[in-house]
Structures are given as C-alpha cells and as structure tokens.
C-alpha cells in the first residue's frame, strides 16, 4: 500500500482541549465562555496598558453605524474605545495577539473557518453607561464572523457593579438569555451574525477588549 505522508503531515495537528471545547460550544450553542483565558498577571498588564492610554486621552466616544455614517448616540452605547494596531503593539498587546492568533490558527486549521482579518479595540464603559441590545453586524460589516470579548476588570467584580453581557438565544423557538459578568481574564466568543446581545448599565468603570474575526 502506498502512503501519502505529505498529506497526513498537513492535516496533522496537536489536539488542544481548550480550543476543542470552544469549537464544540460554538457548534452547539453559538457562544462559548472561557474563564481564565488570560491569567491574572496578563490581565493586569493589559489593564495597565488600557488605563495608560485612557489617561493619555487616546480613547474616543464609540459610534454606531459604519465609517462613513458614524453617529454618536449615547442612548444606544456609552463606551469609549481605542482601536489596537497589531503592528504597533507593546508588550501587553503582543501577549494578547499571541493568544488570539493561536486560537485563530487552530480554528482555520481544524474548522476551515477562513478567518483572514481581525480587528480589536479597547473599551471602557464609564459609570452609568451601557450598550443596548444589538447584533454586531449592524455596523454594515457582514464579514464579521466571530465576536470576541475579553474582560480586564480587577478581581473583585461584584454583581452590584452591573455590566453583565446578556446574550439572547433561541431555545426551541423560545427566547432565552444568559447573563455573563465581566470577570477578569474571562473570554466570551460568539457568532457575530447570529446572537443579539447587550451590555447592562455599569455602576463602576468596566474594562475590556472587544474584537471581530472576519472572513475577508
Ligand atoms: O463588552 C461586552 O461585553 C460586549 C461589547 C459589545 O457588544 C460590542 O462592543 O459590540
Ligand atoms: Fe456587540
């Protein structure tokens, strides 16, 4: 019998149980929650980087709509954001992209997801702000495939702080929801074109990185 080792080599990969869990969650329920995706010291590094840039006044009021038609609408979303340029990254951002890229490579290799580009921004929700229920593709970007949120809050995030990410999903024809607190190091990943979600009002500043994996 003749073998084709080159082909086997291409298809071979080390199975990563964490990534496999994410994939099976996505297939089963269109979202996945991974606690401690980033370790405490990594979260601290990223939080410091966010706060430094925020204090330097680099953040801007998040808008809704697309680039040519940006509307700042406080009654819809109240967060401040700063896009992260992967080329100009510092130590914290390098660490962030290393982990994200490893996940993306795995998704492409094992699921043929065809993720070609990605975009991420820091976000800070000041006290009293929220983001009303929406679908991430309302930004007129049908290329957004998976939404990723990673929380950079300090360890003691309490329920009375509010700021849950509420994801709405269909349960056999009935709408159900899951409420997720923005615990530090927690990563939430969900199908951008499928799941509506919202950020409940926060009582203390809420820190995160949000981004999208895109097909083109
Ligand atoms: O911060 C979150 O939990 C979600 C943010 C979000 O939905 C968005 O930026 O589109
Ligand atoms: Fe969103």
Automatic annotation (TrEMBL):
One of its GO terms (biological process) is cellular response to hypoxia. Keywords: Dioxygenase, Iron, Metal-binding, Oxidoreductase, Vitamin C. Coiled coil: none annotated. InterPro entries: HIF_prolyl_hydroxylases, Oxoglu/Fe-dep_dioxygenase_dom, Pro_4_hyd_alph, Pro_4_hyd_alph_FE2OG_OXY. Its cofactor is L-ascorbate. Residues 111-215 form the Fe2OG dioxygenase domain. One of its GO terms (molecular function) is ferrous iron binding. SMART domains: P4Hc. It holds the Pfam family 2OG-FeII_Oxy_3. It comes from the Bacteria. Transmembrane segments: none annotated. PANTHER family: EGL NINE HOMOLOG-RELATED (PTHR12907), HIF PROLYL HYDROXYLASE, ISOFORM C (PTHR12907:SF26). This is Oxidoreductase.
């Amino acid at each position: 019998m003749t073998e084709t080792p080159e082909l086997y080599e291409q298809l071979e990969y080390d199975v990563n149980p964490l990534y496999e869990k994410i994939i099976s969650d996505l297939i089963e329920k269109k979202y996945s929650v991974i606690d401690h995706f980033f370790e405490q010291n990594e979260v601290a590094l990223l939080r410091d980087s966010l706060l430094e840039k925020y204090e330097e006044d680099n953040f801007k009021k998040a808008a809704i709509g697309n680039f040519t038609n940006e509307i700042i609408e406080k009654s819809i979303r109240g967060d401040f954001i700063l896009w992260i340029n992967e080329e100009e990254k510092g130590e914290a951002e390098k660490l962030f992209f290393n982990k994200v890229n490893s996940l993306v490579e795995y998704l492409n290799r094992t699921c043929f997801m065809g993720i070609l580009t990605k975009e991420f921004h820091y976000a800070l929700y000041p006290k009293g702000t929220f983001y009303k229920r929406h679908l991430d593709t309302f930004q007129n970007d049908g290329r957004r495939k998976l939404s990723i949120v990673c929380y950079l809050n300090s360890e003691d995030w309490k329920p009375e702080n509010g700021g849950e990410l509420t994801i709405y999903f269909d349960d056999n024809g009935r709408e159900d929801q899951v409420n997720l607190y923005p615990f530090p190091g927690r990563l939430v990943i969900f199908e951008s074109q499928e799941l509506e979600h919202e950020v409940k009002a926060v009582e203390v500043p809420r820190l995160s990185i949000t981004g999208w994996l895109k097909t083109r």
